[in-house]
Design a protein that fits this description.
heterodimer, B: alpha/beta, six-stranded mixed β-sheet
């Protein structure tokens, strides 16, 4: 689905490479989480995966990026819109401002695809339901709370049915219950429509619960890559300035104080931690 | 500085009833976390405390001042408010000017202002960015800058709206240290946050809001173990509390050490 080879990138006027020699393959239907300290290059990698680099941000670029069989560098942005979609960390940057209501905002992208009216209406209503926006359909996007805007930003990208969905801190303004709802909705899209998801998040508890693969990005390079149970309990995590979930931390402490057999695999989720201590 | 709310209700123009009959006393030097789901009334309550909003009914006191008799500018000298979204707050052309604006507006002397600016920037770790343009900083650093702008005003009350949002582990640790410093100085610190683990670690009093009402108010070791109340309020308890509850252990633990101790005694 996603294939990056020897990718190196530097912003125009940048003094050093933001991404350095990245090699990465992501399978279709994978829920791939990208974690790392601030400034590691996570957002830039999101731009690469959606064509904003190099079509919007110029700069110095080498290597290849292929998504769903298309060379991203050779495919113009409008053509990439049905293939790969990006949800920004700040919903304000996403919302077009060109439409007056939540419903129109969601339909906006589809109108640009020149789809039949019935299909636009059908897809818009379905995605509003999925993200709990139906009651807000007639409200102006600017009048929504941060959390509501974030759900709108997600809906207006998912309605386009990209094959690859790239999410840069998509739930930063959501409360935990809404965050759980959003991740569950994404999970069902992955299962039903074989969507591929790349998620950037600092919330390791959610990463542990939903991702099936995790990579650590630090200083523009992939430092570790594997299943959550392996990466989120590894020493690499703290080396790169990240903090394990408390489920992992307290379990490690129990092993070190001799309360629990040190050969037992460390947990990353609540369910695993309960099993660990039982 | 103490804060008192007497039977406070607030209805937004348009009819949304955001606060319903709130009675609350926060003593000087308290560190309080307001938690609850989106729309519970947390931000509305916080804005009552700095006078950005005035109650529709009831009275709000900050120290001996009743907010409805004071201007927003007067209140700014007592209550520093760090907004959730830094871009709602930043406007100056350099980091130095951004941080100097508040104390200058309060009529402080120029020589103390530059000291306050340097102290505040050091506290948030942005002292080397003093001559940069705020919008050249990445978002997490812009958030730290807005915190510095409030610290420099040396207000007796500081309100932090979602301070850890978008911060990585190091940023969260830094904000935790700032909260500890403010507590040590005896200032009243209030946070609104979805980051329940951060609240549990740094705020010895927690108030749960739901549909504009206070549904719990107490110490973390008790409030975070009230499962059904939290569930109704749309709050997921801290990780250690959830683990303890699922293992059927007695309530109270919030740190790794506390959990290990209780686990040892009861397994």
């Amino acid at each position: 689905m996603v294939y990056l080879k020897n990718l190196t990138y530097r912003y125009p006027r940048g003094e050093s490479d933001v991404l350095h020699d990245i090699n990465l393959t992501i399978q279709e239907g994978q829920f791939f989480a990208l974690i790392g300290p601030n400034g590691a290059g996570k957002s830039t990698l999101c731009y690469v995966l959606t064509g904003f680099v190099p079509h919007f941000y110029k700069g110095k670029l080498s290597g290849t990026v292929t998504i769903n069989g298309r060379d991203v560098f050779d495919t113009p942005l409008p053509e990439l819109a049905g293939v790969t979609g990006l949800v920004f960390a700040t919903p304000f940057n996403q919302i077009s401002g060109a439409r007056f209501t939540v419903r129109e905002e969601i339909a906006f992208g589809l109108e640009n695809f020149a789809l039949p009216r019935e299909e636009i209406i059908d897809r818009t209503e379905k995605v509003m339901k999925l993200f709990n926006l139906t009651d807000l359909a007639e409200r102006p996007p600017t009048a929504l709370s941060g959390g509501q805007q974030q759900r709108l930003a997600l809906a207006s990208i998912i309605v386009m049915r990209p094959r690859l969905l790239v999410l840069d801190e998509p739930t930063s303004q959501l409360d935990p219950v809404s965050t759980h709802e959003v991740f569950s909705a994404l999970d069902s899209l992955i299962n039903q429509e074989h969507l591929t998801v790349v998620l950037v998040s600092h919330k390791l508890e959610w990463v542990a619960a939903f991702a099936d693969r995790v990579a650590i990005l630090d200083q523009g390079q992939i430092a570790a890559d594997g299943p959550p149970e392996e990466i989120l309990t590894s020493a690499e995590l703290t080396i790169h300035g990240l903090t394990p979930t408390q489920f992992t931390a307290v379990s490690l402490m129990a092993q070190r104080t001799g309360l629990i057999d040190s050969k037992k695999a460390l947990p990353v989720t609540l369910d695993q931690a309960v099993q660990f201590f039982k | 500085m103490k804060i008192q709310l007497e039977s406070v209700s607030f209805t937004y123009p348009g009819g949304v009833e955001a606060l319903r009959d709130i009675d609350l006393f926060i003593k000087s030097g308290d560190a309080v976390a307001f938690i609850g789901e989106n729309g519970a009334g947390k931000s509305t309550l916080a804005k009552q405390l700095n006078g950005l909003l005035k109650p529709s009914y009831g009275r709000v006191f900050v120290g001996d001042w009743q907010t409805s008799n004071r201007s927003v500018a007067q209140m700014a000298g007592r209550v520093g408010f760090v907004f959730q979204n830094p871009d709602e707050q930043l406007f100056a052309r350099s980091v130095r000017e951004e941080v100097a604006f508040g104390p200058r507006n309060l009529g402080r002397e120029e020589y103390t202002i530059s000291e306050d600016v340097e102290m505040a920037l050091k506290q948030v770790g942005l002292d080397r960015a003093i001559n940069r343009h705020p919008y050249d900083l990445p978002t997490p650093e812009r958030k730290l800058l807005t915190i510095a702008a409030i610290l420099a005003m040396r207000t007796p009350v500081v309100i932090l709206d979602e301070p850890t949002m978008g911060q990585d582990a190091q940023g969260i640790a830094r904000i935790g240290r700032i909260v500890s410093d403010l507590k040590a100085e005896g200032r009243t610190v209030i946070t609104i946050s979805h980051d329940i683990d951060f609240c549990a670690e740094h705020f010895p009093r927690v108030i749960v809001l739901s549909s504009g009402r206070i549904v719990a108010d107490g110490v973390p070791s008790e409030v975070y173990y009230q499962e059904s109340m939290l569930e109704n309020a749309g709050v997921i308890p801290p990780q250690i509390a959830r683990l303890s509850i699922n293992l059927g252990l007695p309530s109270g633990a919030l740190t790794d050490q506390e959990f290990i101790q209780i686990y040892k005694e009861h397994r």
